[in-house]
């Protein structure tokens, strides 16, 4: 007999999903002005979870007006008062974390182990962190009494729906701005639950508005003349369109876009932990991470050892039901995303890289992609250049630290990088040479509200998180 | 030139002979041990914690509980041990749950050398091994001839397994060759006249070695010297077996097996008291070494109080109700 783990599903009874949801404008839920709706499905089962309203340009206008009205009072509150609301929201998020984790796994397809142990604790931490800043803005390094910008139009992606919401809303509210936020069309539910938390916390009406909808809703929000600040996390393509839209206006913009991070392993690295870091770097959240370590740069002298160890480790990854507490890799978020990953992986094979996946049974319904490793990848391959946004790792090799730097930086992106070595001097030398917003050493995909996050080049501009994250919402 | 470690090499089997040069002299051994891949403490602890979150329920739990019972070295190592106490422990080892004869036997009864004969007699032909902590347990601070005599006595009295402690003082002061030679000598002392030998478990007292790098080095050192099992600790100090240390030893065993083709067992000891903890260790074995190690031949728990918690959980699974400490035996 073998040690087979029996299913250990988290109960979905803790979350009560309504059959339909409206838009959250000025503290009330209301249908879209033209009555349009769309469905949100669970990517692991293709089950329709709920119907949500599709906001039109009129709805965007109503929401921005509500936010503008609320801004007068909200921005005039003493920082300590705003902090009270943020602390209250943070505590409510903690109290309802199990419910929200299950909801997030249902709507997004990510394993409950990650929504429970990574997403939700970080979501609450961000609100706690920025609650702490709300009454200390004079000491943030932007001069005395820095002023908020006004109405922030925020658009977030589907990979970490609630966490990205927290990254956007917490600093905006702490600094005295009001918010109109559009969650991604495939993962709108947790933002709507957050709207309910805002009501529970007694947040004044109009301070937070949630508009569900597609790209057109987002475009209308970005283009709205009364929006003072645009914050976007998502694809580089959409980011460029947003930059074009706001060019020439006085809107402030922060863009947090794609990435193709290098995870660099030297021959003196702590190999067992490096293997864990590589796995965490690319298979965390099904690889739906903009800062994922999707390019493994390994020193040639340890290539065989490391790849053997990595393959052995990949064989233990458990792919399946996101609500099972033992699942390591959940479902791909949507059919479109699955098609994109499949196409890029096929291109990798066609261009001559060697493809490997552990044998694992994938569920028959839903959207799934087995963890995949490509060896023999060169800089010229598409899989070494384009962001795949899925559980696909490309392995390249290098011989000297200088070559590692050269290859790591040879990308249009620049969001994150990882360095694995036991030698401190080399670690620091590398970190200085790498052009990336976040550089991890002997770890990967570690997030903390106190540390700023953002990119270079096509990975966008501006920083979120930490003291630096305040700047994007202050008139400085 | 430092010797590189073919820790994850492709051609695995039969390399032990070619490893002879790394133990040729002091310098070679030191270079080899210091050339092993480093251990990042944060990463190791994070991995051990993640493995600890696996949710083991229903059939998997029932399997794990019986497996854990069959892997226990039921232990009494007190100055106050009496033949009566040892006999009681042996009886419990054979039938851990008097109300349920389907319960598996434990793997071994672990006693001081002077109790080996008593245990051996009490266990009869039950198939349960007798393990004995020889070599001036637990401090290990005695001259080598004393340790060897201790070992030979225990083997002569019928011990199937010898749990030796290493000289931590020698290891910490960098006298690796002394430790290596001592393990080899004890291994030789485990030989019986009929050509067979008692199994040698080497105890590191990882709580005293402090760093994870030391744990990886001492694991390789003991395996190169011929240890059949590597064991975390004596159970007599403040810090005994911990999940990260055990995980690290499992990884060392895995790499040693990949390199040499030689299979070595692992025994965490001390401080493992609950079913929940024991299952976490089994998950670590399962996901690090896999099925070949999931037997009492290759993995053991050094424990005295763990058994009763396993039995209570076992009763709960079969009856649906928690019983209580009066429904398992004390000894």
UniProtKB/TrEMBL annotation, chain A:
<protein>
    <submittedName>
        <fullName>Aldehyde dehydrogenase family protein</fullName>
    </submittedName>
</protein>
<dbReference type="InterPro" id="IPR016161">
    <property type="entry name" value="Ald_DH/histidinol_DH"/>
</dbReference>
<keyword id="KW-0560">Oxidoreductase</keyword>
<dbReference type="InterPro" id="IPR016162">
    <property type="entry name" value="Ald_DH_N"/>
</dbReference>
<dbReference type="InterPro" id="IPR029510">
    <property type="entry name" value="Ald_DH_CS_GLU"/>
</dbReference>
<feature type="active site">
    <location>
        <position position="256"/>
    </location>
</feature>
<feature type="domain" description="Aldehyde dehydrogenase">
    <location>
        <begin position="33"/>
        <end position="476"/>
    </location>
</feature>
<dbReference type="Pfam" id="PF00171">
    <property type="entry name" value="Aldedh"/>
</dbReference>
<comment type="similarity">
    <text>Belongs to the aldehyde dehydrogenase family.</text>
</comment>
<dbReference type="InterPro" id="IPR016163">
    <property type="entry name" value="Ald_DH_C"/>
</dbReference>
<dbReference type="InterPro" id="IPR015590">
    <property type="entry name" value="Aldehyde_DH_dom"/>
</dbReference>
Automatic annotation (TrEMBL), chain B:
<dbReference type="InterPro" id="IPR002915">
    <property type="entry name" value="DeoC/FbaB/LacD_aldolase"/>
</dbReference>
<dbReference type="GO" id="GO:0004139">
    <property type="term" value="F:deoxyribose-phosphate aldolase activity"/>
</dbReference>
<protein>
    <recommendedName>
        <fullName>Deoxyribose-phosphate aldolase</fullName>
        <ecNumber>4.1.2.4</ecNumber>
    </recommendedName>
</protein>
<keyword id="KW-0456">Lyase</keyword>
<dbReference type="Pfam" id="PF01791">
    <property type="entry name" value="DeoC"/>
</dbReference>
<keyword id="KW-0704">Schiff base</keyword>
<dbReference type="InterPro" id="IPR011343">
    <property type="entry name" value="DeoC"/>
</dbReference>
<comment type="pathway">
    <text>Carbohydrate degradation; 2-deoxy-D-ribose 1-phosphate degradation; D-glyceraldehyde 3-phosphate and acetaldehyde from 2-deoxy-alpha-D-ribose 1-phosphate: step 2/2.</text>
</comment>
<comment type="similarity">
    <text>Belongs to the DeoC/FbaB aldolase family. DeoC type 2 subfamily.</text>
</comment>
<dbReference type="InterPro" id="IPR013785">
    <property type="entry name" value="Aldolase_TIM"/>
</dbReference>
